[in-house]
Amino acid sequence: MNDSNPFQTPESDVSPTPANTANTNNKTIVCNTVAALNGANWVIDGFRNFAINPFSWLLVVFLYLLMLGTLSILPFISIISTIIAPIFMAGLMIIAKENKYNSSFSINNLFDGFRLNGGKLAGLGAIYFGMIILLFMVLGIIALVVLFGNIENIESFADPSNFTPNTALIFLLFILIALAVMIPIIMAFWFAPALVIFHDIEIFDAIKLSFTGCIKNVLPYLIYSLVYIVVYFVAIIPVALLAIFLDSNDPNPIIIILMILTGLSIALILTATFFTSVFASYEDIFSTEP
């Protein structure tokens, strides 16, 4: 296993290349429909990518989560974390590419999005943030109309003891509406950072291509999701086994520390392999041609 210096300068050129423009010298991005079982291969390829430089991946993911987590808890500054998230996502895609093809790993690549295409990537984050705000505003208006249209609904939400089947149906409807809108938003931004950083296409072209790539590959993504659910359940088994030996009346601090360290390690591994699997799916779905 090769765990190279994460601070070394990568050898290959990862500067974005323009695509899908009127210039005949540029290449056209092709959005492919792949086989359903490719969704499982994305997860496998993600773990293979991680295995090349596992400790470097753990370090960069920890740094990424620490930075965004710190920004997220600060008042008003938390908005910035949403806007710059695509910039870091682009950096993670560059790292995944370099790691896969050159076995080189540079934490500095995490910040390459700022240097290579920061404006467009921040624009993606701003549009995503605006769409989420708009979604919550619409849901809020619907909630006000429904709740104030029936005093019983207000009483049910105010007092859980008055929770009725009708209230449960309304609550379920809100969730379904939110999912129905949120899923397309996620699809529209899933591949957008990678498309911008690797092909330098315009923001709305990236959003459109990302949505198209997801919608044309619903079955692979269903398999991908199911496989990851299984992986997550298997991953929590070590923590669950440690919990069995934990006495609630007299908790052993050593077991508690082991549970925390094990849980943190598993969380970092799953987060890292999520990013590498996203890169694997991007490579599988999108290709270029003259």
TrEMBL record:
Glycosyltransferase keyword on record: no
Keywords: Membrane, Transmembrane, Transmembrane helix
Ranges annotated as spanning the membrane: 50-67, 73-96, 125-148, 168-198, 219-246, 252-280
Region spans: Disordered: 1-21
Start-end of Polar residues biased regions: 1-15
Top-level taxonomy: unclassified sequences, metagenomes, ecological metagenomes
Protein name: Transmembrane protein
NCBIfam families: BPSS1780_fam
